[in-house]
Amino acid sequence: MIIEKLLLMTASSAAIQPFYSEVLGLPVIRSEQGSFTVQAGWSELTFREMDPQPAEEHYYHFAFTIPENRLPEAKKWIEALVPIGTEAGQDVSYSESWNSHSVYFEDPAGNILELIARHTMDNAAAHPFDPQQDILCISEIGVPTSSVPAAVDQFESLGLMTYKTRNDSFNPIGDDNGLLMVVEIGRRWHFTDKTAESFPVRVTIRGIGELYLRENEQGLSIENIN
Question: Where do the domains of the chain lie, and which CATH numbers do they carry?
Fold first, then answer.
């Protein structure tokens, strides 16, 4: 599953644009009053201001894929710029079932970002880690909802299938290239003290189109807005 575009909401685009363009070094491809877009490998990431302004900041969890052999160098790079998340005294997450290593950090708005090296992918780099070359794509976006099974059924009706094993509280949809992380509202995000909360997301998936995801009283609403 290829995530071509991801649009997230924020209270102030001006407050976070420098983090993405200057700290992470992602090229700005569009910038206007109230929004900006950066290029992250084959994916575009857009932040747009909310109107009216909410009482509290929205925060999301999303991941960038990096070359499968460059996590140690990527960790040194990002921890020199921002604090990285820890859990049980560890600052690198290893998943045996996914065969991946990750590090977690936050942007100034509190969004939870992840650099993930998936050892199942044939994307090893021969050169030293370079964020401008080696942030390869957006490969995950968290989708919290009150009913994970119902949301999974909706995604599967669109041809977007479960990754690994179906689960009632944590059910990724997609494949190694891209995942929608369908999780139960209130579940703690890995390597943070934040819980999963539902905020509107627009995600463009190759072969599917643009989906508008938002939670309502019935659970997750998925609107294809092509």
Answer: 3-224 (3.10.180.10)
